[in-house]
Amino acid sequence: LFNTLAAVRVKLNTMLLYSRSSRAMNISTSGILRLNRSATYARSINASVSRKSFCLAADSKILEKSSVQTPKHTIQVLDENGKDVTPRPVYQPDPAAVQSKHSKIFASDTSGGTMSDFYSTTYQTTTNASFAGAFTRSLFGSGSVSIGSQSIMESMSEEIEDPSSKRDNSISLSDVQVKREEVKELIQEEMLDDMVDLYLVESDTLCLLDMPAISVSVDSMEAESVKERNSRYTELCKNRTGNDKYMGRSMQTFNGASKTKEVQSEAITMADAATIANNWDMYDSFCSAGQGEVDLSTDTDKASIAEMIHQNHGPTRTMERTMSVISSSTIVSSSSSRMEMEPFVVPSESKPDPELILQSEEFQQHLFVMERIILENIYQPKLAAYRQLPTLEGMVLLEESSLDEEGPPTPALERLWSFSCELTTGRNVSSMAWNKRNPDLLAVGYGQFAFKDQKPGLVCCWSLKNPSWPERIFTCQSGVTALDFSASSASMLAVGMHDGTIATYNVQSREKTPVIDSSDCVHKHTSPVWQVRWINHERALSGEDKGEALISVSADGRISKWFLRKDLMKLKRTRNDRFKRQVGEKERKSEALISRQAPGLCFDFHPTDSNIYLAGTEEGHIHKCSCSYNEQFLETYQAHKGPLYRITWSPFCSDVFLSCSSDWTIQLWRQDLFTPVLGFMSTQRAVYDVMWSPKWATVFGAVNEGRMEIWDLGASILDPTIVNPASPGVKLTSLLFATETDCVLVGDSDGQVSVYQLKNFTAGEGTQVGTLEDIIGSTLASQL
Amino acid sequence: MAEVEETLKRIQTHEGVIGTIVVNAEGIPIRTTLDNSTTVQYAGLLHQLTMKARSTVRDIDPQNDLTFLRIRSKKHEIMVAPDKEYMLIVIQNPSE
Description:
The complex is a heterodimer. Chain A is 21% helix and 24% strand. By secondary structure, chain A is α+β, with helices and mostly antiparallel strands.
């Protein structure tokens, strides 16, 4: 450290501090500033040299704000011996650094500043390359820097160099600033998980402040020389008494007249505001701000942006929340300043008309769900029993209490509930079908069997979740006699009617009209369609036959196969079968053979071979037919004496089928035998419907006019196992087993479909097929 | 529109249903089968509870939202279907 700063020669191009001139842009190349010693020089900066010369390569540089390129300027400090003692920079800039721009600070006006200030700030940073700005920035931030020093900085920064310095070493504040920003961004992009090694190194000692002592200790080595100098000085002063140069004098400065000024302003009103930001509140704001940003790029209209942001606010939002929205969005969007300037208006939402509410989609949906929930409350035990779940009663689970009973429990039927509503009362249930994909959906067709008192038919789709009102109601022009759901497109429902029309409905839509109607077809049926069935032909004869086709049988003696052509919107009939009336051989030989077609009443396709099917006629004949032969039957089974109402193959034994007819009997057949294996008769009533149980091979259900019977061949082949009489005055007309559960549905002539659960039915499983075959075998054996 | 009315009527006639209330977002009843003071009381109290329930659900997962609220008490069950513009309330006495 040097004790005194004897003289500093500074080459400045612009204002020289003591000259206090205006900002002269001309540059004097050799403006050397000689500084006298003064107390304020105590704040000297750099080391070791007594005097420093501060050379700034002067050139014709102008202090301009706009100049981007600063010429290279170096500051060299030379002591009186010409030694280069320019302080080395603490910060070494990148040689490829961007040319510095003049920062705003440099553009500031010059004003008188003291050299001392200048030294205090500049010398730490001046180096070969002029970094006037580099460290002054840090100093500016940290300490109080006078404007004068700033101006000096800027003046220095424009120095033109001496030839040796590099051109691109100049760095200004803004330059450093930019550099720092770049570095920052880089870090953000990199992986934050990287292990970064930090090396701590001791840098060179910088001397920032040196205040040499004025007094010297008596014991020090210099004491003698100092004393001698002091004495010499007093001698000198004594010799020069009277000389103005060596006299101490005092000065007085002018004090400006002071004046007090008062300013009054409006009181700043404060208001407390608080808000709670929930997790979802922040999420909503973020989502809506994200939407706002997307639209910003497209729509430059301020009003719409503000409107959009406001639309996302609920009515409970306060002003503060809108503020939070906007402030969060400033991070997101670039034109945030635009948004902040928007006037904040609490959105006035439109009050929806009460009628509009009632008609809205959501309201209807809510009503729908609510109704189901209410019904679930009411029907919960029944539905639970249906689904074979333990029932809740007063929040206590009831286990199956059948174990408490003594002795083997008798199989019984328990009535769970019935599907009926005011629309269906008085109508005759003619057919029922489960949906193939949704096992909770049931389609019921209502129509009279007899020719007289025909009224328009009705098809209702019921859901298990709502036994009191059907999900879909379709009114048809004539009584419905047959129903089937398609398997391939599960929402297609085929309906056969009393006047011979076949229509298909789409139950998914809310339309009341059929999708396709066969009334336009040329070859449509002319008599009631007694059964329709969707059949999937895997082995197709031609390309056309693949896929699902609709087969129908009608009283005009034809079995027709229908295709749905989507583009033509017409049913196309491709094939038909005719029933030939079998003339009794003996009695009517004399009469001419009148080949008439016998009305067909039912049919059933073989469960595995979709080419073979059985058809039953009004005369009591069962014909086995094949799809490949149109004219001939393969076999004929004759046993019944009355019209056959139902034929059904056993789902377990592929050779066995059942038939029921109005001659009070149910017959069990085997495919290869032309006489029935077993016959069942319980009452003297026509049997309207029979169906194999989908779960047990030896069980089937039958319904006749007065009662419903469940037969278990494993238990008894003479009597039905369970008998359930119908309510008086009501005839039971159709029967349907539920696929997943132990329930049976029975339709009656009063429009009710009752659901019964089979209780204590332990028919066993698995060996059922064997049991059935054993029964058949034993029966045959006994007949021999 | 008629379907909505029909459904509302059907709901009211189900077994055990004590009352049905439809209020708009401000608490003004649109349709109600109970007297006005009871309606206003139910609407006000349930509105607050629904807000709290919705806030709870969304706090756990902001992408979730409340669809239905059922309160079972000793005497009845109150079922609330909340929405932005309205609230549907049904009070039922369950069969057991």
